[in-house]
Amino acid sequence: MNAEEISAWVSLSEAAKILGVHPATVRNWADRGHLPSQRTPGGHRRFRIADLQHWMSTQESNAEREAQVFVQSALGRVRLELSEQHFAEAAWYRNLDAQARQTLGACGRRLMEVMQRYLSSPSEQALIEAREIGLKYGQAIRSQNLKLSEAVEGFFAFNDLVLDAVMRLVEIGRPTHERTEPVRKVYALTREIIFALVDAYEA
């Protein structure tokens, strides 16, 4: 893109396409002063491409920080549950030996690393890694002669804590129309893990 193109102005809908969001989101950002814009004599918004590019680079950094906060909050919730022995009360957890619990802990830590990357910058590689985690989790649970329903129960006990932490934070830090995006990303990873977990039991 040459200097003339970068200095060009685009419409609201064109800006939305460049940023990959709904036009209403761009309008909201402009109204709140987060995204520079000008109005034509007819009242239509115009956005400079250079401003859009600068804003995107800033948001990438913000997304990484936000993802880190989400994951740290989720880890805090999980550690609290473990320290208060809430997991230990569940039948599926009591039936795990020390090695299986260690494996699940490693799976959980790796999932948090993948989730942090995926929340800040979604990629197909992260979904592949989520499937690998789900497969390893399923194999570990199956080796303990637990039923598939117990394996799913165990995963959702962990996943519910993660979702709760994410939802609490987005309610505080995001406007209403932007709150579903992080939840959808968590769901995308969750879906891959569940598919792989079932595969581990059907293998």
TrEMBL record:
Molecular function terms from GO: DNA binding
N-terminal signal peptide: none
CDD domains the UniProt entry points to: HTH_MerR-trunc
Gene3D superfamilies: 1.10.1660.10
Protein name: HTH merR-type domain-containing protein
NCBIfam families per record: excise
GO biological processes: regulation of DNA-templated transcription
Organism lineage string: Bacteria, Bacillati, Chloroflexota, Candidatus Thermofontia, Candidatus Thermofonsia Clade 1
InterPro entries hit by this protein: DNA-bd_dom_put_sf (IPR009061), HTH_17 (IPR041657), MerR-type_HTH_dom (IPR000551), SinI_DNA-bd (IPR010093)
Span of domain HTH merR-type: 13-54
